[in-house]
Amino acid sequence: MEEDMRERHAARIQGELLPGLDVVSVKSWEPVQVRRAPQGWKTLGCGNYAAVFAYPGDSRLAVKVYAPGRDGWEAERQVYRLLGEHPAYGRCFASGEHGGKRWLLLRRLHGKTLYDCLLQGVPIPEQAIRDVDAALDYAVSRGLRPHDVHGKNVMVQDGRGIVIDVSDFLKQESCEMWSDLKRAYRYAYKPLLGRKPFPVPGWAMDGLRSAYRRIRRRSKEQPCRDVLDETKAPPDGGAVSKP
Ligand SMILES: Nc1ncnc2c1ncn2[C@@H]1O[C@H](COP(=O)(O)OP(=O)(O)OP(=O)(O)O)[C@@H](O)[C@H]1O
Questions:
Q1: What is the Cβ-side half-sphere exposure of residue 186, based on CA atoms within 13 angstroms?
Q2: Are 21 and 65 in contact (CB under 8 A)?
Q3: Distance 166 CA to ligand 1 centre (A)
Q4: Of 79, 114, 117, 170, which sits most exposed with the smallest number of CB within 10 A?
Q5: Mean pLDDT, 10 residues at a time, over the chain (243 residues)?
Q6: 64 among the known binding-site residues?
Q7: What domains can you pick out in the chain, each with its CATH number?
Q8: ipTM of the predicted structure?
Q9: C-alpha span between 132 and 155 (Å, rounded)
């Protein structure tokens, strides 16, 4: 993206979206809440750190705004810089901090998360699983450590797999989530739903998720997202606008 376009988008985000936006994190282990957003800025989704909005007038773009007090913004910018351009990842075109609010301008993804595919009975093709495998190998080749790759962080778009949340890829500890998910795909999804997918009820999905969390003994409070030394990141397009 050209520099002047980045600046125009940054001006719009900081002049139009952020002043009328109220995103809060009430409990660190629950999705953030969008209490108020300016007209025309539709919420696409909320994670435990940030909310993501459609960019009005350009369906190729989305804006992710971190809730005050939630870290991860710096790490996410760095990971996108290290990843560069790859078909199985999003892209960060610009980022900034304004009035205490931290934002990223991202490539908008139009697929469905694996979680939503299960809820809605939409088939999950093997190709998508292979794409994510290849994408994670690529991340390792860029010096990153894939982390927190689960059913809500992977999308299927036009039959291909895309990793949508890379903010934990700087963490040093290993994470088994993707291996576990692949095992579940191979030994449960393929035999039971592979031929004729049907919607899995929400209560069953929630039950499976909490059973998995118990088994893995994941703590509810999430630790900080680590940040690499800036000097180790190669330069690229993620322009940062001044507060
Ligand atoms: N580039 C994108 N295009 C479209 N929708 C997106 C995009 N990025 C994120 N979303 C939507 O916003 C939701 C929250 O985004 P994301 O998972 O990145 O937030 P987070 O707070 O970092 O998440 P987590 O709790 O997993 O750490 C996603 O589940 C997805 O529905």
A1: 8
A2: yes
A3: 10
A4: 170
A5: 92 96 93 96 94 96 96 94 95 94 96 95 96 96 94 95 94 90 93 91 87 70 48 40 33
A6: yes
A7: 3-108 (3.30.200.20), 112-216 (1.10.510)
A8: 0.98
A9: 9
